Amino acid sequence: MIGQISMLEPAHLSIFDVVSIRRVFPILHQEMNGKPLAFLDSAASSQKPRCVIESLEDYYRRYNANVHRGIYKLSEEATFAYERARGKVARFINAASPREVVFVRNATEAINLVAYSWGDANIRAGDRILLTVMEHHSNIVPWQMLAQRTGAKLDYIQIDGEGRLVLEDLDRLLTEQTKMVAVVHQSNTLGTINPIRMIAERAHAVGAVMLADIAQSAPHMPIDVQALGVDFAAFSGHKMCGPTGVGALWGRRALLDAMPPFMGGGSMIKVVELDQSSYAETPNCFEAGTPAIGEAIALGEAVDFLCQTGMEQIHQYEQYLIGQALERLSEVKGLTIYGPLSVADRGAALSFTLDGVHPHDIAEVLNVEGVAVRAGHHCTQPLHRLLNVPATTRASFYLYNLPEEIDRLVHGLEKAQRIFA
Ligand code: 7TS
Hints:
Blueprint: H1 2-8, H2 11-14, H3 18-23, E1 31-32, E2 35-36, E3 38-39, H4 50-63, H5 73-92, E4 101-104, H6 107-122, E5 128-132, H7 141-150, E6 153-157, H8 169-173, E7 178-184, H9 196-205, E8 209-213, H10 225-228, E9 232-236, E10 247-251, H11 253-258, E11 269-272, E12 277-279, H12 293-309, H13 311-329, E13 335-338, E14 349-354, H14 359-368, E15 371-372, E16 374-376, H15 381-387, E17 392-396, H16 403-420
The structure holds ligand 7TS.
Residues 43-44, 106-108, 136, 138-139, 184, 188, 213, 215-216, 236, 378-379 line the site of ligand 7TS.
């Protein structure tokens, strides 16, 4: 199958050896309901290569110890590996320094950290926070909570009929009162890739700070936070071949240095007295308590794995897959795709509805066929309300997916149609 594809497709794809890539993902080699597993839900959480799983085991078997405190060999080794992982993550997104990378649990925690720490220090009643209607709940709710604490107001950039941001809204909504602009780089529902750099320039022109939610782009394309021109970026390890329980907040050094701590406790202090404390420098002042040490180290392994595979190659292969998926799905009668129909403007998360069949029923029929997809609102309820559908079914692709899994998706949809419609 792959040999055929290599011959049929442009030269750059022939060097992307998806069969070899699949070999290092143990979970993919199983059946689901008697059919080979086709995992099309990587936008929710990706699968893990063997090197990441082994890295976790190696840590717990060989050098498990707390970091930044012990002076014995195991603790030194754990600390070294933990800080080396920070360096890997920093290089992965082209941060100016590892000190700009804060390890957190996930993208959600990264955004909450900014909303509490930067937000409480900088947002006042009457200030405005600009979001988009396609944000994941984790880039809406923390700002709503900040607005409730401070009396700030939220504004939203709308989308057009193909799920692209209406950029003219910036003229109207970006004002001197706008203090924060927080936008998703790649929508987890529409797949839309947003022009972050341009929005960041516009945000800075009115003196606002810009946060990019890169949870869905960092796993799938080369990321350069400096080139994106943003001030903060938030992402999760588990969507990019890493473990759950670890993610990162990147922030410009000057901004992080000026921010008060988010949570207090061990590890984030310099000196503690009974009635007051002084705090460690960034990033340590934002990492209170024992961090997810083995998980952060394994995220470093995931970064190595992705870089060795090549982020540009991964992106091109996924663009090929999404092109195939758009073409095949457009042949299914009664199917509506939400989001851009041109490959260049979108990533590999594809949400759709099928006339007369509930999204959950589609997912159930696909489950029986061994195809794992997500059905629901994908934590974008305001967007679904706007699209006027309670739920969609979403197929999302990653570097280990096969073109033939798209055929199986299409056959499953036709079967669902036969059964329900
Ligand atoms: N931002 C985006 C764009 C996301 O897609 C997600 C998770 C998050 C933030 C939050 O990530 P977390 O790791 O903190 O939970 N998106 C999804 C999804 O689409 N299906 O499950 C989780």
